[in-house]
What does this fold into?
Amino acid sequence: MKVVFLNSFDKAYRKLPGNKQRQADKAIEKLIYCLDEDINPMPKGLGLEKRSGGFGYCRIDIHRRILFKHEKKMLIFYLLGTHKQIDNYLKNI
It folds into this structure.
């Protein structure tokens, strides 16, 4: 599977402290593994939710989510942020 990280994601990721970056890395690795292996249902710990426009997000902690889109053999990471940041991002695309 091809994995793409948009600049909006990279920018938010770099602002996180090291321990939160590691949490994000673990969530991303788990999501990629589950999608590659077609695991269904997905682990509840990821806190996956579907959003409009084919987007989904997974949880890295109680406050932060990773916004992504899975299309065929491509996984695109759009943003890492709070619920409010993700809602605002989706309203503006």
Residues 64 and 82 are 5 Å apart (CA to CA). The domain at 2-91 is CATH 3.30.2310.20 (YaeB-like fold).
